Amino acid sequence: MQELTRRAVAERAARLLRDGFVLIDLETTGFPTDPGVQVIEVTVLDQTGVVLLDTLVRPQGHIPDGASRVNRIYDADVANSPAFPEVYPQLAGLLNDQIAVAYNYTFEQDVLSAVCRRYALAPFRPRGWWCPMRAYATFTGVQRYFKLTEAAFREKIPVTNAHRAIGDCRMTLALVRKMAEAAGPL
Hints:
By secondary structure, this protein is an alpha/beta fold. It has one domain (about 1-180): 2-Layer Sandwich (Nucleotidyltransferase, domain 5), CATH 3.30.420. Helices cover about 45% and strands about 15% of the residues. The protein has helices spanning about 1-20, 65-70, 75-80, 85-95, 105-120, 130-140, 150-155, 165-180, and strands at about 20-30, 40-45, 50-55, 100, 130. Strands 3-2-1-4-5 form a five-stranded mixed β-sheet, sandwiched between helices. Helix 5 (about 105-120) links the parallel strand 4 and strand 5.
């Protein structure tokens, strides 16, 4: 039975790579449950790795020290960056009506929903979401979710620029490709 679920994940990853998707990662001031959570960096890649959007985002207010310790993004870094409402039209154009892929997609989905509500912006409407974190748990047969850096390490994917949106997008895409390899030639 395990081989069937592993195979199903591999085939789904291969189909996504063939048919197309957009991969998104956010860096934020906190968690979706934080009432004032803000996006401070967003990257979107296509399934081939082409960068469609990669920008710092100026939040309302100060970036908490705890967030800066994780993602190495500080107030001075975002001082001249666009605010979320300025990035929104391009981001909506990339996400709406597409399959959106994100490692731990509920984090991205919940943050985007909270920030859109705060700015009174229409919610994003991707055609669907796919989560490589959940897929990887099924793929490995391990009954837990791995941090992205753990999954990358296990699959011998270089851990580069972790906790920055572009680095996390590239590691996630490499993980999707690794899982797809188990389906055979693309």
